[in-house]
Design brief:
Length: 212
């Protein structure tokens, strides 16, 4: 089985809602935005400073993004997609998915950008936890749904609605990334990932004599 990333590149929106094809400039600007957020936090990051660090004109940035929040949203999408697995394996889909969920959670949890935003600009993350899902979450759901379906076909994952199972896996993973730090006195970061592994394994394992 081969599972590959979808939409490895993020194409920022232009003012007319279309996509710009110049990926080199797009990524240059996103790199500059990453640098700014790590230095200042999102609230103190400006499009002007992003343009300065990227070595491009302000209009070049303004044509692609309407405000700093939009730039950072696409930056988060790029950074999350970068850690999604590109895996080829002869093992079961369940083992593939279990390893992928745990590894991605550990990488995102410790990612410098997410650590910075979680500590200084939680409102941005709250939007994608409480109000709506973002492009990166949609990519993750699509990827997990494919693997869940494959696992149901090879008998390694329990029966049930693949979309619902993938959605629940996303909720479980997000809780470890965003909520587990509130329980550090009772549950260390490493222990949280280990408990997630146990929970996901039990959740996916077929039950003898059960149809789902």
């Amino acid at each position: 089985m081969a599972i590959r990333n979808a939409d490895d590149q993020v194409l920022p929106r232009k003012g007319d809602g279309q996509r710009t094809p110049n990926l080199a400039i797009d990524n240059l600007i996103l790199d500059a935005a990453r640098s700014c957020v790590l230095d200042f936090g999102m609230q103190r990051t400006t499009l002007a400073e992003i343009a300065r660090r990227a070595g491009v004109s302000r209009p070049t940035v303004y044509r692609r993004w309407t405000d700093t929040r939009a730039v950072v949203a696409d930056l988060l999408t790029r950074e999350i997609r970068a850690v999604l697995p590109e895996i080829e394996t002869t093992g079961s889909a369940r083992d593939l998915l279990l390893t992928a969920v745990v590894d991605v959670v550990a990488e995102i949890r410790d990612h410098p950008l997410f650590v910075k935003i979680r500590s200084t600009d939680q409102e941005l993350l709250t939007t994608y936890i409480v109000d709506r899902i973002g492009a990166s979450q949609k990519s993750i759901l699509e990827l997990m749904t494919v693997v869940v379906t494959a696992g149901q076909q090879d008998g390694s994952i329990r029966h049930g609605n693949a979309d619902e199972i993938a959605s629940m896996l996303l909720l479980m993973a997000q809780s470890v990334v965003f909520s587990a730090p509130t329980l550090l006195e009772r549950l260390s970061a490493d222990a949280a990932v280990q408990q997630l592994r146990i929970a996901v394994s039990a959740y996916l394992t077929p039950t003898a004599g059960s149809d789902g």
